[in-house]
Amino acid sequence: QVQLQESGPGLVKPSQTLSLTCTVSGGSITTSQNYWNWIRQPPGKGLEWMRFISFTGDTDASPSLKSRTSISRDTSKNQITLQLSSVTPEDTAVYYCALFRDNWFVTWGQGTRVTVSS
What is the structure's pLDDT at 116? Predict the structure, then answer.
């Protein structure tokens, strides 16, 4: 069974670039029809989908975040990395990695909390 583990810095200063990593176990990030997503939840707010990278390496992003996000993968480490640039306190959130397959988000990581503060 696929398991996801997010990791990140915890605290980031405004204007910096946030880098988050999702380590995948129990399956390959190149398995057909797997789409690897980053989703976040700010305090007191709902879930916000950010970006995905597919099993082929194709990617797409939320229009509101497209200019500030990039996503990459390391197939040798079975990891997905998201970068979010020019962070502000509004980017404070719990960030989740999630596997989308067969029209469902079938697996979620436990999330990693990120605070943007000087």
Answer: 98
